[in-house]
Design brief:
Layout: H1 3-18, H2 27-41, E1 49-55, E2 58-64, E3 73-78, E4 81-86, E5 106-111, E6 116-124, E7 127-134
Antiparallel strand pairs: 1-2, 2-7, 3-4, 4-5, 6-7
Length: 151
C-alpha cells in the first residue's frame, strides 16, 4: 500500500471515529457525502483546475477546458455537490494526421460547504471560470439580543 493511501485511510478512519461521538448528532450523512465526493474526486485527473480564494466568502474555480464550448459543458449543483461535465463532438473535417489534443468527455465533482452557492460560470480563452460564494441567510447570521430591565 502506498504511503498516500495509508495516510488517506488513517485520516478517513480518524474522521469516521471522531464523528461517531454522540456529541456530533446528524453529522454522519454529511461525512458520508464528503467521503463519497472525495473518493470520486481522487480518481478524476482531467481537466486540470485551480481554486482561488478571492476573499473570506468568495472563491473562483477555473478549469482548463480548451476545445469545449458552452454547448459542450454542463455545470450543476446537486445535494451540495458541484458537478461539471464536458463532452465534445469529434467531427474533424479531413484526415487526422496527428491527434495530440485530448477531446474526451469528463466529469469533475467538488463538495460545497454550508451556504456555498455557485453564483456564475463563464468560459473565456479555454478556461471555464465558476464563481462560488458563501451566502448566509439572514436568520442564520449572528444577531444581538437587547437586554431589557425588568419592571
Amino acid at each position: 500500500m502506498k504511503l498516500a493511501e495509508k495516510e488517506n485511510k488513517m485520516v478517513s478512519s480518524f474522521a469516521l471515529d471522531l464523528f461517531k461521538d454522540p456529541f456530533f448528532i446528524g453529522f454522519n450523512r454529511e461525512l458520508e457525502r464528503f467521503n463519497t465526493v472525495h473518493n470520486l474526486a481522487t480518481r478524476q485527473a482531467y481537466p486540470p483546475y485551480d481554486i482561488i480564494k478571492v476573499d473570506e466568502d468568495t472563491y473562483k474555480l477555473s478549469l482548463a477546458v480548451a476545445g469545449f464550448d458552452e454547448e459542450n459543458l454542463n455545470v450543476s449543483v446537486d445535494n451540495a455537490t458541484l458537478i461539471i461535465k464536458g463532452e465534445t463532438n469529434d467531427t474533424e473535417e479531413g484526415e487526422v494526421v496527428h491527434k495530440g489534443i485530448a477531446s474526451r468527455k469528463f466529469t469533475r465533482t467538488f463538495a460545497l460547504g454550508e451556504y456555498m452557492e455557485v453564483t456564475g460560470a463563464e468560459i473565456c480563452c479555454g478556461m471555464l471560470n465558476i464563481n462560488i460564494e458563501r451566502i448566509v441567510p439572514e436568520d442564520k447570521k449572528p444577531k444581538q439580543i437587547k437586554v431589557k430591565v425588568a419592571k
